[in-house]
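[User]
If only I could read backbone structure tokens as easily as an amino acid sequence. I have put the entry right below:
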Amino acid sequence: MTEDWRTQISQIESLAKSLGLKYHPVELEVVPDSFMTEIAIYGLPVRMPHWSFGVRYIYQLIQHRMGLSRLFEVVFPGNPGRAYLAKSNSVAENVLVTAHVLGHADFSANNILFRQSQAQVGERIVEQAAAHARQIGMAIEEHGLERVETVLDAALALEQHIDVNRPLHRERYPEVLPEKAPPPEGDEFVRRYAALGPDTERPVATGPAKRAPIPPHPERDLLWFIAHYAPEMEPWERDIFLAVREESFYFYPVFACQIMNEGWASYWHARLLREADFLPHSMYVDAVKCHSDVVRPPASGDHVALTTNPYHLGFSIWEKIIEQHGLAYARKIMSEDDDFAFIRNHLTQELATELQLFRYKGPANGTLVVQDHDISALHDALLAPKYGFGAPTITVSRMHVDGRLELVHDHVTDGRGLDPERSRRVLEYIARVWRRPVTVVTVNSDNSPMEITVTPDTLGYRI
């Protein structure tokens, strides 16, 4: 059966290219379902070991066994791209998945966020992640599992706290404040002031340059800051932080473009199937049934969905855009936008009503009612989980002379406070590698100011 599927690959690719898809070569590999689950959980075929991935694996396994999720494929952008297909897929499913993968490949090769990421991280992330895993394995041999795991605890707890608006490779802050630039020549005020005579001459500044504050401005990239400024961080610890940060830069476009990307791939697998007259009729019918399962809404009829299927939402928006404005216009959007622009600009009130995308509330009696039909509120509800890479907005506000680290939570932007228990746990991870007290300033559930401080001496051990 596998051979029957593979014979269709070259024809599907030829059709895709004739319809305007442009992508890097894609390597397809069929793997056991258990390995598919591992890939989906770790995010890459080979990645640094950590207990948190095991927790996620168990959750995914339970979801799968309860019939709540199924993995047909996992795609990794790059040059070449990599796609892993589940061994349990039928031939028809693999035909559809192949077409779906080519849609993803076209998206990642042409979307600006993906291109910027690959320009910085590189186009061979699978090999780079494997190198990171080997690097961490060597650190475990040299420094012991407990010490390495402590560093990974902190780095992975902060993996979403990067600043994608700054480059991956950054210089440290200037150590001294820049000297004030002299007034421009020809300045009328300077000319008149100088004409007053020698008694008005300003004394020339002498002495050492003034040391610049650290950071000189609120710093959002916590992984970068800790890697470069932790008072006693050892080189191998710094390397782990920077490896996690590099992989986070790779994952950001996948996160920020999920609805667009899955919708684009779904549009193209549907269109390629529709125009693939070389497919046997029985294979086409089975593949179309699979398509219906992929892009169906999470509920229909009298049922109410409290979640959004990104495949269904993205597919529906792309179909409407192409129907109204044509494929060239759609490709322009695909290349320039992320989910924020895509949803706000192209999920209209008309389409939202057609898709029955409403905001619901559940009163005490358990009956769900439509809360409102406001399109801006719907946009906010769909996009809220995506702000800040899905993490609270935390910045480094000050590193004190004695090494104490002060963080600030922008609760106004986030619209909520931090969970004290979870925040304290993360601060404990940070304090163990920072090796000085760490404080975060935020608000509690009553919107009252709150500070949480963790001192490494209280944690029982230091690495």
In short: The first strand starts at residue 26 and ends at 31.
